Amino acid sequence: MFEGVVATILNRFLGNYVTNLETTQLKLGIWQGDVKLEKLRLKTDALDKLRLPVDIKEGWLGTLTISIPWSNLKGEPVRIHIDNVYVLATPRFQENFDPEREDEREYKRKMQHLENDDLLRQQQLLKKKG
To answer: Residue 16 contacts by C-beta under 8 Å, 6 or more apart in sequence?
Structure first.
C-alpha cells in the first residue's frame, strides 16, 4: 500500500516534467532505496514554472536516480541525482507570441499548483489521522 502511495507521488511530481515515465520502473526499485529511471523525455513545458524567455524544443534526461533513506526518513534527505541532461531551447520572441498557447501554459501552471496544494492537504489529513 505504501509503495503505491510513493509511486503516485513520484508520478505526480515527475509527470509534470517528463513524458515517458513508467510506473513499473518506480515500483520495482522503490523498497531497495533507489529508483533509477533512464532516457526520460522532457516535456516542452517542463521549465514554464521558471518563466524563462525560452521555449524547449527537445529535451532528455539520461539517468534520474532518486535515493530514499527508508531507515531514517526524518534524519536523512531524499537525494535526486540527474546525469546527462540535454535541452534544445530557442529564444521566445514577442513576434512569435501566441496568446492561445500562453493561456494554455498559464492554465497548466495553475492546475499543477492546485494539484500540489491538494496533495499537501491530503498528506496533512493523513498525518492527523495517523
So the answer is: 43, 46, 112
* The predicted structure's pLDDT at residue 26: 62
CA 126 to chain centre: 22
- Full DSSP string of 21-73: --HHHHHHHGGGTEEEEEEEEBPTTTTGGGT-SEEEEEEEEEEEEEE--GGGT
- Sheet of strand 34-41: strand arrangement: 34-41, 54-67, 79-91
| Cell (9 digits) for 26 | 518506480
The grid coordinates of residue 128 equal 492527523
Residue count (the chain): 130
**What are the per-10-residue average pLDDT scores of the chain (130 residues)?**
63 80 63 79 86 88 86 87 93 73 84 85 81
Which among 79, 88, 94, 36 has a CA at the least distance from the CA of 60? Answer: 88
